[in-house]
Write a structure and sequence with these properties.
The chain is of the alpha/beta class. The protein has 6 helices and 5 strands; from the N terminus they run E-E-E-H-E-H-E-H-H-H-H. A 5-stranded mixed β-sheet has the order 3-2-1-4-5, with helices on both faces.
């Protein structure tokens, strides 16, 4: 990624795999990049084990972005799934804040996208017991819009695809030239966009 290009950074945080995406604006066009941060599944029974795992995720993220790097125009992150059936909520919250806090302290505008909102944006509905939205549906939706981005061709890389979708929503809010579908409008309207977001519509010279 070029150092001077304005970009949106986005995250889909999790303990096993955290997806990260950057969409940069260069010469009037947008380019997307994705990464996955992986950690070994452990019991995380002690405070030391939980802290070590969170720290490992943080160190991997620092290879993508760290204080001192060029600041993104905005940062998007998937909101906490408070009603999720899986456990370790305390540790997952630690990861969420560990990654987002340095960006907040740097003054970067941050927006959250609820999981159901992201599904509605990607496939046109938020899912239901009779009509679930599976990970493969998200991957397929992103592949149709970003066929040149490698993660969109592998269902197992859905974390990266979700991060990419969150970032694309931010770019749409900024009126950057990214793909848009008719069903994107309503989900975009319910996101609480930061008032201090910089309306960057052209690359820095």
């Amino acid at each position: 990624m070029t150092d001077q290009a304005p970009y949106v950074l986005s995250l889909d945080t999790a303990l096993d795999k955290t997806g990260v995406a950057k969409i940069e604006l260069v010469d009037g066009a947008c380019r997307a990049y994705t990464w996955v941060i992986s950690t070994d599944r452990t019991e995380d029974r002690t405070v030391a084990e939980r802290c070590a795992r969170i720290g490992d995720i943080g160190r991997q993220f620092a290879r993508i972005w760290s204080p001192g790097d060029p600041l993104p125009v905005m940062v998007g992150i998937e909101a906490a799934a408070l009603g999720a059936k899986w456990g370790e909520a305390h540790t997952r919250a630690g990861v969420w804040y560990w990654l987002i806090m340095p960006l907040h302290l740097a003054g970067v505008p941050i927006y959250e996208v609820a999981p159901t909102c992201l599904k509605r944006w990607a496939v046109g509905h938020g899912g239901s017991p009779k009509r679930p939205v599976e990970k493969r549906h998200m991957v397929e939706a992103m592949r149709q819009m970003w066929p040149g981005v490698q993660c969109t061709h592998y269902d197992v890389r859905h974390h990266e695809c979700e991060a990419l979708g969150i970032g694309q929503m931010g770019c749409q809010h900024l009126a950057w030239p990214v793909p848009i579908r008719r069903h994107h409008g309503d989900p975009l309207s319910v996101v609480k966009w930061p008032a201090n977001a910089r309306q960057m519509t052209a690359p820095r010279q």
